[in-house]
Amino acid sequence: MRNRRSKDVSSEDYDESVAMNRTSAAPEPGRPIMTGLASLPVFFNVRGRRVVIAGGSEAALWKAELVQAAGASVVVFAAAPCDGLAELERRGASVALVRRRFEPGDLDGAVLALADCDIAEEAEQFHAAARARGVPANVIDKPAASDFQFGAIVDRSPLVIAISTDGASPILGQALRGRIEAMLPAAIRLWAGAAKSWRAPLKALELAPKLRRRFWELFNERALTASAVPPGPDEFKSLLAEATAEGPRAAKGSIALVGAGPGDPELLTLKALRLLQAADVVLYDDLVAPEILDMGRREATKIPVGKRGYRPSCKQDDIIDLMIKLAAEGKRVVRLKGGDPMIFGRASEELAALHAAGIATSVTPGVTAALGAAASLQLSLTERVRARRLQFITAHAHDGRLPEDIDWRALADPCASSVIYMGARTLNSLVERLAAHGADPSTPALLVERATCPDERVIRGTLASLPAKAAALSPSGPCLILIGAVFAGGVEAEQIREAADIAIA
Ligand code: SAH
User: Fold this and answer.
1) Which neighbouring-strand residues pair with 112?
2) For the domain that residue 460 is a member of, what is the CATH number?
3) Are 384 and 433 in a shared domain?
4) Are residues 405 and 499 located together in one domain of the fold?
5) Residue 307 falls in the annotated catalytic set
6) Given this model, what pLDDT does residue 8 score?
7) Which residue of 269, 287, 337 sits with most ligand 1 atoms within 8 Å of its CB, as the best mutation to test the pocket?
8) Of 135, 198, 324, 451, which is most buried, counting CB atoms within 10 Å of its CB?
9) Dihedral through CA 317, CA 323, CA 328, CA 332, nearest 10?
10) Whose CA is nearest to atom 9 of ligand 1?
């Protein structure tokens, strides 16, 4: 046995379990020895080797496809194979079909033995035949007759992730696989492929172990960030230059404007989640749910920079100065904004200042409040006849009053759906101005407070009735006003509810 302690960090070249779990294989005094591993996970190279499958079912077909994908030379024994197996053989996969029952001698020279047996006795016989030849066996759904199990897999070859619950709950394994799939950046397969092809040239350079490790750490940073694009032809050279640069590495700071959605944390995009998990600092708005902040890296610094209407709050210039300062320090900053960053979020001012300061920026969209509200209400914002146009409007000018320069005729258009942001406080004057511009007072109008949050409230009415109803319920959370013919569904629902209330009374 080689003593791993005497080896340098390049042990990760050979054994990923060492790279991932341990730096030393020898149990130090006092460290408990690992026990209780349900089964031994190994990644088995079957390229060009004989794998025998007994049985012609659909389940056997899936195993044949999987094993040939790993490059094995597969032989399937089945008296009456399913059509798929014949198709697999015909399409030139390395699968040979032998149309007769399996016999124990077929296992000679095989490295793995797989079978689909209905009867327990048959499964035992197959297992015994494999054992007699020293060939590990798996009988589908018969753990007692199997030496090994297949896990649920995530295939981003050369990166392969396998999950086993030791038969406890294959469905749990599948669900976990889904989560892992969603977590992986889209380009991870290409990055893993690049790592494979760069390993030899990197080794040939005979760098000091410390520099080689730095190379792979930088590699990880690029491969695992949300914005990960496929590695280009110059990536190897640029990573090498960065890894071997003299002195401490000057980290490059960046600012990502990220939409956090309207409230429900499940509405966060996968990209937003990955950026949060890679951030050093998160600057967040008032409207961002605490659950979303909890999804970020635990070690990240989280700074509230809320701009609260009508309350003391951070000045926009101070926020911009803070962003520039953090990026200059080399921090990866996520600027988390409620809804979508490009809708009533002053993103253009922030981006212009950051670009002028030469800071790398990116923007990740989020679900804007209007779309969250439409989803909650299950009301389409557009419709072929009743709503050909959709407009998002802010009813909050610099001075907190209703802006004067709104296109009132457009807002009174009976064939448009209008969603009004920051409009709860100016609702009365808005409705008055609309009436003066010829809007029909019976036009359906809704107020949605805290759309998509557990305490969401909807106030249903018309242009004529909404202001009084809203005043009576005095909402305190963020509110949208929705005006237009398509919101009539809500009005009917309210009428039904009022009718029901009367009946109960
Ligand atoms: N960028 C955000 C909007 C920021 S302006 C977006 O795309 O949604 C802030 C205003 O958005 C609030 O005053 C309110 O009008 C609206 N808003 C944000 N979240 C909301 C929610 N969950 N429910 C209702 N309105 C919301």
Assistant:
1) 51
2) 3.30.950.10
3) yes
4) yes
5) yes
6) 43
7) 287
8) 451
9) -170
10) 422
**Torsion angles phi and psi, residue 419, rounded to 5:** -115, 125
CA 309 to ligand 1 center in whole angstroms: 12
Residues 138 and 93 in one domain: yes
Catalytic residue among 286, 302, 307, 469: 307
CATH number at residue 145: 3.40.50.720
Instruction: Determine the pLDDT at residue 27.
Output: 63
Contact 355, 332 (CB under 8 A): no
**Domain-located, residue 249:** no
The DSSP call for residue 480 is E
- The verdict on the CB of residue 339 being under 6 Å from ligand 1 is yes
What is the token pair recorded at 132? 């007699």
Please report the atom of ligand 1 found closest to the CA of residue 345.
1
Identify whether 210 is a catalytic site residue: no
At residue 504, the 3 state secondary structure works out as helix
Q: Summarize pLDDT for 454-503 with one digit per residue, the tens.
A: 999 999 999 999 999 999 999 999 999 999 999 986 444 444 445 445 44
- 360 CA to middle of ligand 1, Å? 27
List, for residues 385-419, the tens digit of each pLDDT value: 899 999 999 999 888 899 989 999 999 998 899 99
Is 424 part of a structural domain of the chain? yes
Asked if residue 229 and residue 111 are part of one domain, the reply reads no
Which residue range is the domain that position 202 belongs to? 187-244
**Boundary of a domain, candidates 367, 388, 417:** 367
Q: With a 6 A CB cut-off, is 480 part of the ligand 1 pocket?
A: yes
For ligand 1, atom 2: residue with the closest CA:
339
206 and 267 fall within a common domain: no
Res 245: pLDDT? 84
The verdict on 382 and 499 lying in the same domain is yes
Residues of the chain with confidence (pLDDT) below 70: 1-27, 226-228, 246-251, 307-313, 489-505
Cα of 478 from ligand 1 centre, angstroms: 6
Residues 6+ apart with CB under 8 A from 472: none
423 and 496 in a common domain: yes
Residue 301's DSSP bridge partners are 281
* Predicted local confidence at residue 471, as pLDDT: 95
State the total domains in the chain.
4
